[in-house]
Amino acid sequence: MIDLTKRTDQKELLDGDNIPFEDIKMNMRELNTINTLLGGHSITIKGIQYIIENKRELYTICEMGCGGGDNLMIVADWCKKNNISARFIGIDIKPECIAFCKERFSHSDVEWICSDYRKINFENKPSILFSSLFCHHFSNEQLAEMLQWMKVNSTTGFFINDLERNMLAYYSIKFLTGIFSKSYLVKNDAPLSVARGFLKCEWIKIFQQANVNCVIEWKWAFRHLITFKNAG
Fold it and tell me: What is the pLDDT of residue 35?
């Protein structure tokens, strides 16, 4: 039995270098399937709904750690269906991920940026910043800095959709990916992502460390939705 009383600091395979492009593409496709079937995309939409108040406003919505771009495209489709004017930015540090996004999506209102998010200086700050399955890659200290960065660089607010560290979630995803996944990256990294996730009490300490007053809600299946709205 794995000990989940504390976060593991074991790095995921996807955090490494020199992974073949075809392996990354398979990983991105399978993650999209998992996000769809287990409700991850619906939580992202809940985050957008919480932040957006004036549907007549033009929003710039930016995802940090956009991976294969599926989250951002789900948001783009939702905005279109709900008559919300928006443009979109996807940021990822891996050139393979940005190449994959450009290969799959040709939307004229999406800008794909290959960069460490911390190195970006926006000419015009996004209305909304968000991340999904991104934060568990970082340490507590790095996350406190990230929250401060997201607060400063979003004009309306930000949200985070990420995993809860939970024994049932760990063994469930390990079992499911062991049977159904064809990606060695997903088989290794999906349960490890859960082991790298946070408990609600740990998030609250990070909020306090960052001095950013966020709202945190538990969502099925074993996720946290963290939201912040800028005053004014």
Answer: 92
Check if the beta carbon of residue 223 is closer than 8 Å to that of residue 164. Answer: yes
Q: For residues 168 and 4, what is the distance between their CA atoms, to the nearest angstrom? A: 11
| pLDDT at residue 105, as a whole number | 85
pTM: 0.95
User: 87 and 63 in contact (C-beta within 8 Å)?
Assistant: no
Instruction: Let me know: does 230 contact 156? Beta carbons within 8 Å.
Output: yes
3-state secondary structure at position 166: coil
The pLDDT of residue 53: 84
What is the reported pLDDT for 55? 81
**Residue 4 or 18, more confident:** 4
Please calculate the CA angle 108-113-118 and round it to the nearest 5 degrees.
Answer: 145
Omega into 99 within 30° of 0, i.e. cis?
no
Report the distance separating Cα 188 and Cα 63, nearest Å: 24
Tokens of 156: 């309306």
Side chain identity at residue 211, one-letter code: N
Query: If we measure between CA atoms, which residue out of 124, 129, 123 comes closest to residue 148?
Result: 129
Over 80: is that where the pLDDT of 108 sits?
A: no
Three-state SS for 72-123 is HHHHHHHHHHCCCCEEEEEEECCHHHHHHHHHHCCCCCEEEEECCHHHCCCC
The three state secondary structure string of 2-15 is CCCCCCCCCCCHHH
Residue keyed to tokens 């990256």: 185
| Residue 197, amino acid | G
